[in-house]
Specification:
The complex is a heterodimer of chains A (198) and B (96). With 198 residues, chain A is mainly α. In chain A, 78% of the residues lie in helices and 1% in strands. In chain A, helix 4 runs antiparallel to helix 5 and helix 5 packs antiparallel against helix 6. Chain A starts with 9 loop residues before the first helix and ends with a helix. In chain B, 55% of the residues lie in helices and 20% in strands. The longest helix of chain B is centred in the last third of the chain and has 21 residues. Chain B is elongated, with a radius of gyration of 14 Å. In chain B, 36% of the residues are buried. Classes of the chains: A mainly alpha (198), B alpha+beta (96). Chains A and B meet through helix 1 and strand 1 of A and helix 1, strand 1, helix 2 and helix 4 of B.
Chain lengths: 198, 96
């Protein structure tokens, strides 16, 4: 852009404004790696827990969830790395950060509640939390797979409450597949395509 | 010719900067340069002009030992931008 001043028409002015606003839309950072990290970690843990509990009859089947602090550490490294390369702060990214902080804190708080009242009914609640996070996130960035995945979590959570714990594990895996893994991969594909066009 | 249009904003690069900043919370100098394809020198001059009329806030800080310039639109800048867009609409409406 050169240093020409006052030599462009109002039409060109409007075009410039809309093209710049359009440019910032494409500045939405690709956050699919967080969905994929947690999605695959939870999915693998569910399969692991089902295998240990139902097939192996191993009493300490819940040890698979020790994957959570490991993933949390990886996520912190990812956040630090993302912050370093971030040269713009958008309102959307900020709202998303608040949302996921609230969801993260909800998982933390509910873990204390379930430690007290028993873990047998934790999965329907976790499915609801996945639903809230992905539905709101998807709506903010107007990404349908996340919105749909999030909405599906609500009836899924209701059904899960009526199932035995063994099936609840499977339902959690289904919920994370629909709300995190599939939309996460689709979001990644979309972001890669957008980057290729810029 | 376009006497009703705010001369501060009716300049390609300054308008581009304000249009970028209106849709984000804040942006680094490098981001604005990347999106406007302007030279660092020219962009710096235009950003200072916008800062002088208090349309934007400019904060200089260090991030990982590298200097960083962060720009943010002010309420005065938002008002000026809105008025500029209104003037544009009026002008184009009259022309139609």
């Amino acid at each position: 852009m050169d240093n020409v001043e006052n030599e462009f028409s109002p039409e060109e002015s409007l075009r410039l404004i809309s093209s710049m606003i359009e440019t910032t839309k494409n500045s939405l950072k690709d956050r699919s790696h967080y969905f994929l990290l947690w999605g695959w970690a939870v999915f693998i843990a569910c399969i692991g827990q089902y295998y240990l509990k139902v097939i192996m009859n191993y009493p300490n089947h819940y040890i698979v969830w020790w994957i959570t602090p490991v993933v949390l550490i990886i996520q912190i490294f990812m956040i630090v790395r993302d912050r370093k390369t971030e040269n713009v702060k958008t309102f959307i990214n900020e709202v998303s950060a608040y949302l996921w902080t609230a969801i993260g804190l909800s998982f933390f708080a509910t873990s204390f509640i379930f430690s007290k009242v028993g873990w047998q009914n934790c999965y329907p609640v976790y499915i609801i939390l996945y639903g809230i996070g992905t539905y709101v996130s998807g709506s903010i960035i107007k990404f349908k797979p996340l919105i749909i995945g999030g909405i599906i979590c609500f009836p899924l959570a209701a059904i899960t409450a009526y199932l035995s714990f063994d099936y609840q594990i499977i339902m959690l895996a289904v919920a994370i597949l629909i709300s995190y893994i599939i939309p996460g991969h689709l979001l990644r594909i979309k972001s890669r395509k957008q980057q290729a066009h810029v | 010719m376009f006497k009703d249009l705010n001369p501060i904003l009716h300049s390609q690069l300054r308008l581009a900067v304000i249009s970028l900043l209106i849709s984000v919370k804040e942006a680094e100098f490098t981001y604005i340069r990347e999106k406007t394809n302007a030279t660092a020198g020219n962009l710096s001059v235009q950003i200072n002009k916008l800062k002088d009329v208090e349309y934007i806030d400019v904060t200089k800080q260090f991030k990982d030992n590298y200097p960083q310039t962060i720009c943010k639109i002010t309420p005065k800048g938002i008002k000026a931008f809105e008025e500029y867009v209104k003037s544009l609409q009026t002008y184009l409406g009259v022309k139609k």
